[in-house]
Design a protein that fits this description.
Blueprint lengths: L1 E6 L5 E7 L2 E8 L5 H15 L9 E5 L5 H18 L3 E4 L1 H7 L7 E9 L2 E4 L2 E4 L2 E4 L4 E3 L12 E4 L1 H5 L1 H8 L3 E2 L10 H13 L18 H9 L1
Parallel strand pairs: 1-4, 4-5, 6-11, 11-12
Antiparallel strand pairs: 1-2, 2-3, 6-7, 7-10, 8-9
Helix pairs in contact: 1-2, 3-6
């Protein structure tokens, strides 16, 4: 099964192609510009590196957020357009779950954190059970201090939020706080792809038109609209 995955939920723009359990090609960069400018060239590059055409793909995977509102929209709209035109299935994956998957050597609690700005993080808690990644509770947007409430065991923190608030996390949790190597904090499309593979195998994908972002937190425009009513 050949899958192309996209992640544009954070500052990095990432595209990957996997075939079954093998990574065929991947390109991840922080271009410092809107992802819409780089995404299609990135897709062309990974297809060329894997010596594949779009028509040879069996499906697409994309990160649904949380993360940058604009970035998430760009990734989802691109995948929906490709999947619809080619008649291929799509699977959406949580950005936080994909970050947790990047720490698949961990046997304990994993807390992925993505910087949500406004002194908040998007966060969740995950654990591997028989090699399957399982969530523990809902994903939320919280003050970094609140995100640590109830953690009373060793925990691995990963993501841009974990990197930014590392000192605070260490101050609160002491020896219970652990962090992966620096490269793990960058979300990669290959993680999205590998997480989606089982759902493709089981046929657990929905209608392309129903694929929707998971922002968790309302946008500034939405909050202002509510306050103005």
């Amino acid at each position: 099964m050949k899958l192309l995955a996209i992640d544009t939920a954070t500052d990095s723009c990432s595209v990957a192609i996997i075939e079954d359990d093998t990574l065929r090609s991947e390109l991840t960069a922080m271009p410092g510009q809107t992802h819409s400018k780089h995404l299609m060239p990135f897709i062309a590059s990974v297809l060329d590196a894997a010596a594949l055409k779009l028509t040879a793909l069996d499906g697409f995977a994309v990160s649904l957020g949380p993360g940058s509102f604009t970035g998430v929209r760009i990734g989802i709209s691109t995948v929906k357009g490709l999947a619809f035109s080619l008649g291929k299935p799509v699977v959406g994956i949580s950005s936080l779950a994909a970050l947790a998957w990047q720490c698949n050597e961990s046997s304990g609690l994993i807390c992925p954190m993505i910087d949500a700005r406004k002194k908040q993080v998007y966060c969740g808690r995950y654990r591997f059970n028989n090699s399957e990644l399982q969530p523990e509770g809902a994903e939320k947007a919280l003050d970094p201090q609140e995100a640590l409430n109830g953690i009373d065991e060793p925990c691995l923190f990963v993501g841009t939020g974990a990197r930014i608030y590392q000192e605070k996390i260490r101050t609160v949790l002491g020896k219970l706080a652990h962090f992966p190597l620096e490269g793990r904090h960058t979300l990669r499309a290959s993680s999205v792809a590998f997480l989606s593979r089982r759902r493709f195998t089981l046929g657990q994908y929905g209608d392309v038109a129903s694929l929707a972002p998971n922002y968790i937190r309302k946008s500034d425009a939405e909050r202002n609209r509510v306050m103005g009513t």
